[in-house]
Amino acid sequence: MPDKSDFYPMRTEDVCYQYDEEDVAAVDHVSLSVTKGSFVAVLGHNGSGKSTLAKLMNALYLPTEGRVLVCGLDTAQDEEVWHIRRHAGMVFQNPDNQIVANVVREDVAFGLENLGVPHEDMIPRIDAALAAVRMTERASFAPHMLSGGQKQRVAVAGVLAMQPEVMILDEATAMLDPAGRADVLATVRKLNREQGMTVIWITHFMEEAAVADRVVVLDKGKIALDGTPAAVFSQVEKVKALGLDVPPMAELAMRLNAGGLRLPDGILTVADMVKELKKALCPSK
Amino acid sequence: MLRDITLGQYIPGNTVIHRLDPRCKIILTILYIAVIFCVTSPVWYVIPLAYLLVASRLSGLSAKRLLKSVKPLRFLLILTFILNLFFSAGTTVWVDWGFLRITQEGFLTAVHFSMRLVFLVAGTSLLTLTTSPVALSDGLEKLLSPLKVIRFPAHELAMMMTIALRFIPTLIEEADKIMKAQMARGADFESGNLLKRARAMIPLLVPLFVSAFRRAGDLAMAMEARCYHGGEGRTRLRVLRYTQSDLWALLATVGTLLVTIFAGMWLK
After folding, report:
1. What is the rounded average pLDDT for all residues in chain A?
2. Which of A145, A150, A212 is nearest to A179 (CA)?
3. Which own/partner pairs from B241-249 qualify as long-range (CB within 8 Å, at least 24 positions apart)?
4. Is there a contact between A105 and B162 if contact means CB atoms under 8 Å apart?
5. By a Cβ cutoff of 8 Å, what residues of chain A touch chain B?
6. Do B235 and A118 count as a contact with CB atoms less than 8 A apart?
7. Which of A38, A119, A202, A267 has the maximum number of C-beta atoms within 10 A of its C-beta?
8. Pairing of strands A214-219, A222-227
9. CA–CA min distance A58, chain B (Å)
10. Interchain proximity A115–B227, CB inside 8 Å
11. How many interchain CB pairs under 8 A, A with B?
């Protein structure tokens, strides 16, 4: 049998997680296979189980049912836990609470120090990671001198230096201002495009999910929708019923269609809308 | 460089003293303390005085700057002086007020102990003035690591120091934010007597502690997610290396210690 783990660095098989025995399941029979090199957005409102799912993905939590496979390694195996966490790097929500060292450079080194990487090998890896997130110039800064977006980029560099197979960002932009949010998203998207990094981007902002290759919508711990952003967001009514916003252009397209126009599905941006409207209204051109 | 901004009393610089290995500087400080305690008569404070003057010259810090670090201790100093002045036993009586007596021996002891305090603080502050807190905790970890054999948590101690230093600015910022939020709700932190003001701190301290504990929980999870599992098998980005100047500094300090011991034997 060919090894599926090469193609799916992150797989969950029928995973359930309960915080308490009596509680309802925070994650309820989720099966998800993430393709290597893809950028998957996991979208859901508060309490949808998206953060729990993230923590199941690098053995911070262990599933009460089902299993999670990181590069083919089962997270329930105790002795593999450090391999799993190295392969599935995680960036958290609060930029202040995940930076350990007093200097940017040393924080990026933290993961490498834990892995026991020899000193000579550390420096090129740190430099490359800092360059990838455009923080080279601030390598000797103290973390409290940085903006929220910059701190999150440092956190991304810290994970990147460990050379993981998958990068999981658990609402990494939730505490940032719009500029910082766009900055972090663009940085990670670029890593995904240029270095082929597999990214699982957990968020409750639909406009962030719109740039992904694939959107998985969670609701009450279950997968409610799964598909390309165009396919997911064109189901305007359904997305709204789940308590999520749809991109304004998708909603506009739906209303225009209700009014008699025949625009195709999958319009998410203003540019798409302009193009399709031109086609629909001036077919001669 | 901004890396050590406002933490501790470290003054960044690039002198011989600044560049000494932090481990070596800690050892030098211990030796220096030994020198002070080997001084048997106030006269011989010229030896640590000369030592300090040379060191401060080399470190680019003025003697005035070193004395400044003694200032917070002035009350303790005065107290030490007075207590020793009045309550030391002696035979050569200068003043006798019945219950209070000042003797020549008492005066000398008072001078001796006050000097000892001044030299202790001035000398040890040379260490903290020229060594960044990060380097200090690194040095301490390395120096204490042989004690791991008897299960002394050297690595944990250094990690705690690093994290504490890292979170000082964050918590200061947070305290400021909470204070403003409470002031906006009508809290008064500035008026009233000491007790009243201490009580006014409660609405500041409770949220600060709650948030600090939450931060600690988050940080622990983030550290685990980055494979932190204690000091075992851990490598370091910063490698400490002894250089020639460390050797010279060590020799000079040991020399000073020997001179002090002999001086004390020669003239008590």
Report:
1. 89
2. A150
3. B241/B21, B242/B21, B242/B23, B242/B24, B243/B19, B243/B21, B245/B16, B245/B19, B245/B20, B246/B20, B246/B21, B246/B24, B249/B20, B249/B24, B249/B28
4. no
5. 58, 60, 82, 85-86, 89-90, 92, 94, 96-103, 105-106, 109-119, 122-123, 126, 140-145, 158-159, 162
6. yes
7. A202
8. antiparallel
9. 7
10. yes
11. 107
In this predicted structure, the answer to whether residue A52 has a pLDDT above a threshold of 50 is: yes
pLDDT beyond 60 at B186: yes
Segment B120-146 shows an average pLDDT of 88
Cβ neighbours around A284 below 10 Å, total: 3
Cβ contact B245:B55 at 8 Å:
no
- Mean pLDDT within A259-285: 82
For chain B, the domains span 16-131+240-266, 155-225
Q: Which residue of B has its CA nearest to A159?
A: B226
Using the 8-state DSSP alphabet, how is residue A171 labeled?
S
ipTM metric: 0.85
Asked if A269 and A231 touch (Cβ cutoff 8 Å), the reply is no
Q: How far is A278 from chain B (nearest CA, A)?
A: 50
Q: Which helix (H) or strand (E) holds B118?
A: helix B104-130
**CATH numeric code, A4-244:** 3.40.50.300
Arithmetic mean of pLDDT, B96-110: 83
Give the model's pLDDT for residue B2. 33
Contact B237 A97 (CB under 8 A): no
- pLDDT, one tens digit per residue, over A19-39 is 887 778 889 899 999 999 999
Distance CA B201, CA B141 (A): 36
Q: What is residue A23's predicted lDDT score, i.e. its pLDDT?
A: 78
Contact B227 A158 (CB under 8 A): no
The tokens for B128 are 């903290």
Angstrom distances, CA of residue A191 to CA of A98, A128, A132, A139, B160: 20, 12, 7, 19, 33
pLDDT at residue B165 is higher than 50 = yes
Domains in chain A: boundaries? 4-244, 247-285
Task: Count CA within 13 A, CB hemisphere, residue A93.
Answer: 15
Q: What is the pTM for the complete model shown?
A: 0.81
CA–CA separation, A184 and A171 (whole Å): 11
Q: What single-letter amino acid sits at B17?
A: I
Q: What is the mean pLDDT of residues A219-231?
A: 90
Residue B14: predicted pLDDT = 86
Q: Does B223 touch chain A (CB under 8 A)?
A: yes
φ, ψ (nearest 5 deg) of residue A28 = -125, 100
Contact B226 A97 (CB under 8 A): no
Task: Grade residue A102 by pLDDT with cuts at 50, 70 and 90.
Answer: confident
* CA R_g for chain A: 20
Query: Residue B14: which of B1, B30, B26 has the closest Cα?
Result: B1
Contact B226 A144 (CB under 8 A): no
**Nearest Cα residue in chain A from B166:** A102
Check CB contact under 8 Å for A92 and B215. Answer: no
Chain A: give the shortest CA distance to residue B124, in Å: 24
Task: Please answer whether residues A70 and A164 qualify as being in contact, where contact means their C-beta atoms are separated by less than 8 angstroms.
Answer: no
